[in-house]
Amino acid sequence: MMRTRSSIAVRLSDDRYLLIDASPDLYHQLYRAGLHPEGDGRRSVIEAVLLTHGHGDHCIGIFELSTGAIFQIPVYGPPDLMEHLFGEGRYFSYLGRLGEHYVEPKPLKEGEHIEFPGGLRVEGFEVPHTDRLPDGSYLPSRTYGYELQEGGRRVLYIPDVRELTEDILSRVEGADVILLDGTFWWEDELLRVSGIDVSSTALGHIPIERSLETLSELEMGRVIYTHLNHTNPLLNPGSPMLDELRRIGFEVAYDGMILEV
Predict the structure, then answer these.
(1) What is the 3-state secondary structure of 183-210?
(2) What is the pLDDT of residues 16-61, one digit of tens each?
(3) Alpha-carbon 5 to chain mean position
(4) Which of 228, 211, 226, 185 has its CA nearest to residue 20?
(5) Which of 24, 26, 52, 165 is the most exposed place for a label (fewest CB within 10 A)?
(6) Is the CB of residue 91 less than 8 Å from the CB of residue 140?
(7) Going along the chain, which residue ranges are E strands?
């Protein structure tokens, strides 16, 4: 079954949507969900975009917003990510005049809250994933997870994370839904499957076999693994790992999945 890269849309009031991450598959994702701009006015239903970090599978699709009459859509993300994508002379500043007319880059400080129509409150928080350089900067940017709150309900979106820190675990406990990094099942998955001697952790992803052990001891709602690599055994319907996941009560995200919280 074909899977596109991770990206979610959150319904706000008046059929407006908040988009979190802009994958290279965004064009197809928007069309399948009925969210692509249509009609003579080419109006967009996207209220704003949140980006987690600067790896291509999470931000390259932003160029989809450089077509039609969809002007000045706010794009939020870590400050160094906004500079990386839209800073003076940077690629996305001029691609189809994206950063000049179509989107409005908005650096989001860690812990800062954004209020959206309908009462949704969103906070970005740093998670370990991207490489840290000797000067303290990140390559290509630091990584955020996002916590969404409305009416006493909480959803966490953390598609890329190297380890579950104490801060992350404190947010996870009691959350209604957690969409979590499920890139690899094993720490040595690439070596097992492809003969590539690089670990899951070295690539910035906690293996599911480790996060399962930690999360199964916490009180929380639904845990849904997303961002699966093509080597992940969860993609095999007959996999014993999939049976193990389901026995615990955890889930695997799929294209077109709709969550009501």
Answers:
(1) CCCCCCHHHHHHCCCCCCHHHCCCCHHH
(2) 999 999 999 999 999 999 888 766 556 788 999 999 999 999 999 9
(3) 9
(4) 226
(5) 165
(6) no
(7) 8-11, 17-20, 46-50, 73-77, 103-107, 113-116, 120-127, 131-132, 138-139, 143-150, 153-158, 177-181, 222-226, 251-252
